[in-house]
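Structure first, sequence second, as always.
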């Protein structure tokens, strides 16, 4: 049996994709819509306070295309907190004007492929904790997709030796690092949690950098040979003002 990579796991993640039920929103009167918008303001305020208190992080993006209208990305310490956030949102008046389109449950993950480790507890290191409990950047754009590493007879990631995987990951990391300052990535692990093995969430102020990075990685062996990808979601940062503008009739 090959050696499993060790992971450090951080905050749990919920990517909650919704669409707006425009027929219901348009059928509501001004007063009803005002109640819905108030809900939204209260949610955004409370999520911002959680982030301020460093007890989690939330980012909201519109989604371009027909897969969803917006996504709320929550990072929290526990699955219970994610569950509570989702249910609280579902109970709100605002949620009556939305439909659920997709969701993804995972946990922020760092693996030991490239880190040497100096024998000390990595959780005592502020720079490691900042990566395990990241404040989601409020970049202009987001890109999310789930992925697997292949398990086919000829190309089975999980049957490669630790050393082979380390060598492959080195090249992956080098490409990734060449996008430093342009794309911020958060890798969340989801084996045993959701339908794919990882969620990839990318942030950038220039959406073209998503295409350039993902394209370049396709030529790298880790992705070219072993990557399998789900649906891609791409969108634009939604502030409260942006949300109000979006909902304006
Ligand atoms: O964490 C680190 O910085 C160490 C290097 C590193 C690891 C271990 C790293 C760097 N990644 C790691 C793990 Mn990655 N990554 C992806 C995708 O579309 C594709 O082809 C793949 C989707 C992107 C775009 C990306 C970007 N990475 C992983 C893993 C877990 C693998 C496992 O455990 O088997 C996956 C699934 C994955 C996928 N990666 C980077 C990036 C970028 C931009 C970097 C550089 C990060 C930096 O230096 O800040």
């Amino acid at each position: 049996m090959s050696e499993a990579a060790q992971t450090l796991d951080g905050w749990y993640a919920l990517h909650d994709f919704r669409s707006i039920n425009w027929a219901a929103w348009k059928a509501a009167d001004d007063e009803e819509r005002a109640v819905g918008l108030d809900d939204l303001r209260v949610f955004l305020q409370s999520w911002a306070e959680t982030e301020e208190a460093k007890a989690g992080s939330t980012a909201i993006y519109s989604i371009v295309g027909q897969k969803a209208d917006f996504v709320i990305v929550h990072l929290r310490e526990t699955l219970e907190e994610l569950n509570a956030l989702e249910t609280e949102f579902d109970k709100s008046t605002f949620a009556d004007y939305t439909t659920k389109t997709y969701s993804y449950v995972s946990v922020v993950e760092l693996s030991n492929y490239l880190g040497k480790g100096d024998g000390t507890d990595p959780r005592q290191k502020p720079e490691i904790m900042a990566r395990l409990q990241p404040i989601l950047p409020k970049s202009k754009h987001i890109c999310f997709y789930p992925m697997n590493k292949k398990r086919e007879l000829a190309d089975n990631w999980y049957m490669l030796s630790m050393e082979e995987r380390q060598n492959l990951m080195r090249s992956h990391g080098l490409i990734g690092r060449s996008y430093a300052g342009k794309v911020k990535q958060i890798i969340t692990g989801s084996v045993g949690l959701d339908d794919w093995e990882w969620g990839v969430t990318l942030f950038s102020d220039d959406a073209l950098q998503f295409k350039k990075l993902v394209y370049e990685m396709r030529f790298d062996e880790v992705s070219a040979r072993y990557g399998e990808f789900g649906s891609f979601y791409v969108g634009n940062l939604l502030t409260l003002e942006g949300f109000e503008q979006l909902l304006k009739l």
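Margin note: The mean pLDDT is 97.
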